[in-house]
Design a protein that fits this description.
Layout: H1 2-18, H2 21-31, H3 34-42, E1 54-55, E2 60-61, H4 62-67, H5 82-96, H6 117-127, H7 135-139
Antiparallel strand pairs: 1-2
Length: 143
């Protein structure tokens, strides 16, 4: 029974991946808790400009901002509204996936549809201690 479940789960994951990057990209864009990512990246400060080369609540670099149409909205992410930052972040998510926010995107899983590939992968990341405040990260002293 266990090997059947594992095989079924593997097949379901493979089928989800085979569904195409467009479907996955739009799922990421629609199911991301941007507030949680901003809280993780900048402490929720949408005007963050700390001199580290990343700006705004989502800590977007200027080259990435410009490459994803941000310059049409505001010169810097830190001077853009949260809605403008999220619009550009959705474009980034569509092309780069959650790897654009490697530590923080997985921590926004609460908005991902339960059972989706996004939810599964982010749940696994959180269980591995990848999210600040996750029970495993706290147990291991990472927080």
């Amino acid at each position: 029974m266990r090997s059947w479940c594992a095989g079924t789960a593997a097949a379901a994951i493979a089928a989800s991946i085979a569904a195409g990057s467009t479907a996955l990209s739009s799922a990421h864009a629609d199911s991301v808790n941007w507030e949680a990512i901003a809280q993780c990246e900048s402490g929720g400060n949408w005007a963050a400009d700390t001199g580290n080369g990343d700006y705004g609540g989502l800590q977007i670099s200027l080259p990435t901002w410009d490459a994803n149409g941000g310059a049409e909205l505001s010169p810097l992410p830190s001077t853009a509204t949260p809605q403008e930052q999220i619009l550009v972040a959705q474009r980034i998510m569509a092309t780069q996936g959650p790897g654009a926010w490697p530590r923080c995107a997985a921590c926004s899983q609460d908005e991902a549809p339960v059972g989706s590939l996004t939810h599964l992968l982010t749940y696994m990341w959180a269980q591995a201690g990848g999210c600040p405040g996750s029970s495993r990260a706290v147990e291991e002293g990472a927080v």
